[in-house]
Amino acid sequence: MANIVTSVCCVVLAAVVVVYAQRRSQQGARIQYARIGSDVTMLCGSLDNDTSVTWKVNGTDVKVRKQEEGPWLTLVEVDMSSNGLYSCFQNSDDQRRDQIMLRIGLPPREPQVTCRSNTYPKGFYCSWHLQHPTYIPTEFEVNVQHNQKSLEVKRDEVHKNRCHVKFPELFSTFPYRVNVTAVNALGKASTATSFEESSMVKPDPPEKVVARPIPNNIRRLEVTWSSPSTWPDIDNFPLKYFLRYRPLIRDQWQHVELSDSTSHTITDAYVGKEYIIQLAAKDMEVGTWSDWSVAVHATPWTEEPKPITSTTEADVPIETTPSSAPPSAKPRVGVARGGCSSLLCSSHILLVCILLSIM
């Protein structure tokens, strides 16, 4: 057992040493980026053009299409499999002279940008994303202007592709111009777009949605909810709500629009059918409807069966008359219908004979 444990420990230690050595090697390597499908040329340090070298990738021979000339290595039409740590060794003394971490990728395309205010009137945020991956590190530069003035942009601490901007003034007729530039080692691309203040206002969905059956009402459901916690000033900027509901067995929704209310009673539910219920919110004056809230399920009140009492039909005694056995009943084996068994009759005859002989 001790030998097995020792062997396992040695294997684990060796793996840790290899990983540590690889990381130390990569830390000293310089990074070179290349575009997918292009030819990539790497130079082994600052060696002379007539120096003979040998190239390795991740510690093994370079097996992809390549051309070697002196200290130069050219990879033909690279793809993602060409990624790796390339090392070159001078043949005269077999010493490593250089390391290059090759990263294959693509330049960015124009990012998609959206802006939204779910904390109106405090401010808004803008989000962006790339529709096509670059496979290499890509950064984003963001600039927001309003009425020819640049606004302060605060990057989100959680969402790396999001920034927050405060409204410099409310009810402004000037649009907000947002420019987002994606940049990486292979190129850059920008998207510039404008947003009106009113078009950006979009609350988060209502919260704490609850649907309950109403006792003794077989067609009613009571629905309550709370305004979104992210909406900062519900008193001065009230919300209206849009409720939709449908029985689980149907696809068609029924809708109710409500102004400044956080409860509603559904009065036309199908008896005993389970319902799906959702809500959306919108500022009273501007903006668009929020996304739908998380769906909740509820079933209207169902009348419980009445308990059996002494006055019910179940307690009235039922008179019966003797009857012959049902057709399926069979007489017991060995017993004649309406008489005694043959063994019992024989015993009685024998007893009578004995008594007569004694007399």
Automatic annotation (TrEMBL):
What residue range is the signal peptide? 1-21
Pfam families assigned: FN3_IL27B_N
| UniProt keyword annotations, A-Z | Glycoprotein, Immunoglobulin domain, Repeat, Signal
Fibronectin type-III domain segment(s):
107-204, 205-305
Molecular function (GO) terms for this protein are: cytokine receptor activity
Q: Where is this region: Disordered?
A: 303-332
Residues annotated as domain Ig-like: 37-88
SUPFAM superfamilies according to UniProt: Fibronectin type III, Immunoglobulin
Q: Quick one: a GO biological-process term for this protein? A: positive regulation of axon regeneration
Q: Which GO terms describe its cellular component?
A: membrane
Q: Which family does it belong to?
A: Belongs to the type I cytokine receptor family. Type 3 subfamily.
Name of the protein:
Ciliary neurotrophic factor receptor
Q: Which organism is it from?
A: Pygocentrus nattereri
**Gene encoding it?**
CNTFR
